[in-house]
Amino acid sequence: MAERTVRRTKEWARWTLLGAAVVVLVVFLLAQRTQDVDVSYGQSPSQSGITEDDDVSLSDATVPSVPEMKEMIAADPVVRLPGSIARWDEQAVREVIGDSDVRILVAPPGLDKAERRRVMTVEADLEETVLTVVGTRSTGGLYVAVADRITGWRSQFATGDITGHLVRLISSLEKREDPELSSDFPWREPTGAELDAVAADLRTDGVHVADGATLERVPEESSAAAFPDEDALYVALPMQEFGEAVPRYGPALTRLFPDRPVVVMYGSWIEYHGPNATDFARLSATVFYAHFADRLSRYDYPQTNVLGVWLDRVTDVRYAGLFDRPLPYVPVDPLTVTLPALPWLFTACVVGFVALSFGPLSSRRGSLLQGPRARLAGLTALTIEVSGLTDERSDPSLTRGIGKLDAAREALESELPARQVRRLLDDAENELDDTARLLGRDAYRPRNYLQGRLR
């Protein structure tokens, strides 16, 4: 009687451990679907943006009719329509064109949809290779040339230089290798008179607006949110002449106004100097121009609007924790704390199940080693090893396989016909085989994994 009680206790403990393992595994897999990453340090107060329907983005420029532009481009390989701002190194572009018949149509920025459609129609209708430039956005055929780093954005928006864009477009259309182009920007130190004029305005009201610049005002709320510690100084300059050295005011003004943020605009290009400039300047430029460069290249936004959106992106970066903002308090999530322990708990349950199964299986002189209980134990052990490797594609088949194993266990406990138990185990084996196939791991396919284990 005592021996029978011990045997029943072991049997109960064995299947309890297997049931617990299944429950733990299902909880772990379901938790993977609900986990996400939250990297926000707080809700940024910035709200502005550059929108498609913003009327300030359109200029007074217009373009001729399609037949007129066709005649112009047929007569001259380079046509610059009134108001166009894009410039390039003509020698570098001629070298990459070579003997090819490539024509370039340059239109001004800020065109409405109908005018842009007329420009694109010229490119589509002509048999020759036609590159169209609207503002500083360059297209040709199915290709659009875009800058992907700070040096390219600076040349494009500070001086209208699209040399790299045209070279890449022509090389792609003609199926040639891109030639190496210099990425050096033509900086120069500002003269004493230039620096004195700018510094005098900054000392008066913190803003210097040069002739030709379109900055009407500094957005005060956005500026205060972006630079809460010190009032920032702003210098607005028009787009600089292509091919001429550009005065670099930032470092010189930083020496005159230490510990003050200095923002210098060259057209739509914005330079930051001052506190945290080493880490912050490149990051803020990348965040802003990676998002808005395409619209800035096609439209004619005033510097007031461009500066406002840039300041909001700076605020977003600050709220992301760059400037040592303290982490907000986050209550402890029990699921997050216990989730790492679930695989170990699952392993312990399965090991316990296998250990308790060894006695009953071995006590029957190996007769059951070829039966359903052995297959159930082997397939359960397979789920242990495979569960840590599954992904979104293979999780469903693994979960279904575990469900079939659980049903087979209940069928054994209820002493259902052996045929039904074998069918459930066959279904589980098929699901686990699909799991291994989706993972590309032949070693975990049941027929390979169980070979040598059920002898």
UniProtKB/TrEMBL annotation:
It comes from the Bacteria. Residues 40-60 are annotated as: Disordered. Keywords: Membrane, Transmembrane, Transmembrane helix. The chain crosses the membrane at residues 12-31. Residues 41-50 have a biased composition (Polar residues). This is DUF4350 domain-containing protein.
